[in-house]
Write a structure and sequence with these properties.
heterodimer, A: 317 residues, mainly alpha, Ferritin, 11 helices, 4 strands, 60% helix, globular, B: 71 residues, alpha+beta, Ubiquitin-like (UB roll), three-stranded antiparallel beta sheet, 1 helix, flat
Chain lengths: 317, 71
């Protein structure tokens, strides 16, 4: 929206924010600001929440008791992070109980990556290395730039813990690569589907993105493409350094990372394979996300309980 | 089940720093609030941690309105 078309009250808030104003109460917000603040918090909370059952199941393949404790501690952290996002929303009038227990599985807004099964230890640690890296890339940017005071404060704990998850994942990726053999092969297979899965996570490229309020209201600082570049700047050298192939490289002339495969393209969730000869439009990607993936119902059921005496599930009533 | 209320969580890492707001929990009573705060906000080795029911705050700024703690 150009400045000419913008509502003067919204423009006044944007001007104040550009002068360094931190929003601290609902009275300070315009409806546009509140919407631009709340919508990504659902995605944030749902992503953290759905990582918990995915990691919990994957922890069964942990090679040692120490590594199993590490992953269950990560599950604990992720549930806490989901609660933080939902608490932010609750203070703005959204029903936290409904968010967790009142929605059907397909109504959750997490990325497609957390609809997939993590079936072995290699997939678990690549999830820590790639998915948690995506989380810290996105939330680190929000933490640095957000104009909403309560969110800035809440993200101190989240960022700190996500960095530990990331270190856990990257350390284990290095160990598996060094071990080679079956461990190295499993690592490469995990990276093959999870690298492109995480590239999708950052959403529409900038040239297709409708101009939203998040950047205007300084609820985030970087665009989708810039965030995707930040993620690749960490993950591509990591993988290259341990002899793992990824479909991306640094283009020194243009000073950016370039994706070397068809992107976006069709995905076969049963085979965990990207069909690089079947390109998709982003609209088709969003359709796939909306239909949700193979573990969606199981993961939501694990979070919501089995409908027993104390189970919190509400949508089946 | 009693309705849960919001408790604000405060803690400090060492005795030289100020007690700071670190988050919040929804709990049905003080004992559960203590348990939830202790298990959820475990990112540091706190030397002191306490919870306060949100309704017990007496705001001085913001024209007496409760601020949005929000986290």
């Amino acid at each position: 929206m150009s400045e000419k078309q913008r509502d003067p009250i919204a423009q006044a808030l944007i001007d104040r924010i550009n002068d360094g104003f931190m929003v601290a109460s609902e009275e300070d917000m315009t409806p546009g600001y509140k919407g631009a603040l709340l919508t990504p918090r659902t995605v944030q909370g749902d992503t953290e929440l759905m990582s918990a059952p995915a990691y919990y199941l994957a922890a069964r393949d942990a090679p040692t008791i120490d590594s199993r404790i590490a992953v269950t501690a990560i599950v604990h952290d992720e549930l806490g992070h989901a609660n933080i996002a939902y608490r932010i929303m609750e203070d703005l009038g959204v029903d936290k109980r409904h968010l967790v227990y009142g929605r059907q599985p397909h109504e959750f807004k997490h990325p497609y990556g957390f609809d997939q099964p993590l079936e072995n230890w290699a997939e678990m640690v690549v999830a820590n290395g790639f998915f948690d890296r995506a989380g810290i890339t996105l939330l680190g940017d929000v933490h640095e730039h957000t104009s909403y005071g309560p969110l800035k404060r809440a993200l101190v704990k989240v960022d700190r813990e996500e960095i530990l998850h990331l270190r856990h994942g990257e350390s284990w990726m290095k160990r598996l690569a060094k071990a080679g053999g079956e461990a190295g092969e499993a690592l490469q297979r995990a990276v093959d589907w999870m690298f492109v899965m995480t590239l999708e996570w950052f959403g529409l490229p900038d040239d297709l993105k409708r101009h939203g309020g998040q950047l205007d209201y300084r609820l985030k600082g970087k665009t989708n493409d810039q965030l995707r570049q930040t993620w690749m700047a960490a993950t591509v050298p990591l993988c290259e350094g341990i002899g793992i192939d990824v479909p991306a490289h640094w283009d020194a002339d243009n000073e950016e990372y370039v994706i070397d495969c068809t992107f976006p393209c069709r995905y076969d969730p049963g085979e965990k394979r990207w069909l690089h000869d079947e390109p998709l439009t982003w609209e088709q990607v969003f359709e796939r996300w909306k239909k949700r993936g193979p573990m969606n119902e199981r993961y939501v059921e694990m979070v919501q309980g089995n409908g027993g005496l104390f189970g919190g599930r509400q949508w089946q009533a | 089940m009693a309705d849960a209320q919001v408790y604000e969580v405060f803690a400090r890492k060492d005795h030289t720093e100020a007690l700071k707001h670190v988050g919040s929990v929804n709990a049905a009573d003080d004992d559960l609030a203590k348990a939830y705060a202790w298990t959820m906000y475990d990112e540091e080795n706190w030397v002191e941690m306490c919870v306060v029911p949100r309704g017990a705050f007496i705001p001085i700024t913001h024209d007496g309105a409760l601020p949005l703690w929000g986290n």
